[in-house]
Design goal:
Elements lengths: L6 H36 L4 E2 L10 E5 L11 H15 L5 E5 L9 H11 L7 E4 L5 H10 L5 E6 L1 H14 L2 E6 L8 H21 L12
Parallel strand pairs: 1-6, 2-3, 2-5, 3-4, 5-6
């Protein structure tokens, strides 16, 4: 009979720990990669970067991306709103839905986005705001269930549009994307963080199915 501390038992225990460690490391590394690839493939062929390639869509959903302490739009957010304005002035969209975070009184993304668009010639009648777009999931869910939209043109950076369109598919909106990328404005840190956000999107869609902040229905 082998004792509990026999060399064979010790070696076997070490081997099991090693296998478990390798499996855990593979999961930690592999799951985000799988999630990013899965989300990317789900949006394949529906992201455009040239207005001439975009089919007319009544509403462009412009996703928030932060405002600076002085109230100005962040670089990424300004690029998104500028892209939406170009689409509007080209007649490719009729309405802009500005969706962003306004959970505290001194931080109001959608209102800053609206004001920026109005200063650049967009009619006030053609801009709607969603003050509870705290996350991409929330923005798309509310576009469907608060604003009653079943089709949108989502405006954001290319790396973000994969996840946005994946969420559109599972929330019940027919979505296409317009990439608001501007040369020299790439933010590598944000793009790396997007890998983890794709894991969260899969969890939301297939497991959690969260219900965002809701309210009365609005027409746009």
């Amino acid at each position: 009979m082998q004792s509990r501390n026999s060399p064979q038992r010790v070696t076997s225990a070490r081997r099991r720990r090693k296998v478990l460690g390798i499996a855990a490391a593979a999961l930690v590394i592999g799951l985000p990669i799988f999630a990013r690839l899965y989300v990317h493939l789900a949006a394949r062929g529906r992201v455009f970067s040239e207005p001439s390639s975009v089919a007319h869509c009544r509403v462009a959903l412009v996703l928030g991306a932060g405002i600076r302490p002085d109230g100005r739009l962040s670089v990424q957010l300004q690029d998104r709103v500028d892209a939406a304005i170009r689409l509007y002035k080209a007649g490719l969209v009729e309405k802009l839905l500005m969706s962003g975070d306004n959970r505290v009184t001194h931080y109001n993304e959608p209102e800053r986005m609206r004001r920026y668009a109005l200063r650049r010639g967009v009619s006030a009648d053609d801009v709607a705001v969603d003050f509870a777009g705290r996350r991409t999931y929330d923005s798309i869910y509310r576009a469907k269930h608060i604003f009653g939209l079943d089709r949108v043109l989502v405006v954001s950076q290319r790396f973000h549009l994969d996840r946005a369109l994946f969420l559109c598919d599972h929330i019940g909106i027919k979505g296409t994307g317009f990439a608001a990328d501007v040369k020299g404005h790439r933010n590598l840190r944000v793009e790396i963080r997007e890998v983890g956000a794709c894991v969260g999107a899969l969890v939301d869609v297939f497991l959690r199915k969260p219900r965002p902040v809701m309210g009365k229905r609005e027409r746009i």
